[in-house]
Amino acid sequence: MEPMKGRERSNGLVMALGLVLLGAVGADVVRRGLLHHPAPPARVPAADTVASAGGASAPAGSVASAARERVRARIAEAADRTYITGALLETDSAIRRWPDERFARALQVCVIRQRVNGFRDDFVANVNYALGRWNGVLPIALSTGADSASADVLITWTAQLDSGKTGRTDLTWDPRGNIHHAFVVLATHDASGRLLDGPRMSALALHELGHVLGLGHSQEREDALYPIATALELTDRDRRTARLLYDLPPGPIR
Fold first, then answer.
1. How far is it, in rounded angstroms, from Cα 3 to Cα 69?
2. 230-249 pLDDT tens trace
3. What is the pLDDT of residues 72-117, one digit of tens each?
4. What is the 3-state secondary structure (H, E, C) of 114-143?
5. Dihedral, CA atoms, 127, 128, 130, 131, nearest 10 degrees?
6. pTM of this structure
7. In what order do the strands lie in the sheet with 27-33?
8. Which CATH code for domain 8-252?
9. Sign of CA dihedral 112, 136, 214, 162
């Protein structure tokens, strides 16, 4: 599908695996920005409110530059234990995540039982399995049961994606990098037309929910965010990367 104006598409990998539980399942993350102006990120003071040690206000540009330098230092320090550095290549060196204000209010998830070719009711249980693996990792929680009108995250199914992948996540964020909505499409068949089974759907949902939370791809095959979704559990690298993401302020790092 051709990119739409105002959107960025990350290039996923499409590979074929012959293992029983590993299908050709890929992920495509589509992200787009909003036009309204959000509140400043909570973890870094707004540049125009930071005072120098002598009490005089520091220039806004120098304060912002120093803040970004601290963020880059944190990322560099954790580079060998996370995959956030590579993931930033997918976002033009910007941290995008849900705002701190959502820590006290769970993200509301609506799972639509889409009656498409290949859909099974137990696929909903596979999504719930994946939700349970992410809950508890971060200070932000995912809660099912919302209706489509009020949901922060909408999950639905299609028989097959025209991209040749089996999952796609569309994120909407504001100019400061705060995510506000997510739309996830899970395919019931892989690129070859083979029906996904329960374990493969669980792995796919685990992968796409990582994108929902703001994570990019990992280059380590065992990680849940590897471009071909095969992991049924989060690795320590997945958890460390997610926690680092939410310990950093949203926004550009350059």
1. 32
2. 999 999 999 999 999 999 99
3. 999 999 999 999 998 888 888 999 999 999 999 999 999 998 889 9
4. CCCCCCCCHHHHHHHHHHHHHCCCCCCCEE
5. 120
6. 0.79
7. 7-9, 27-33, 167-173, 179-187, 153-158, 107-111, 142-144
8. 3.40.390.10
9. negative
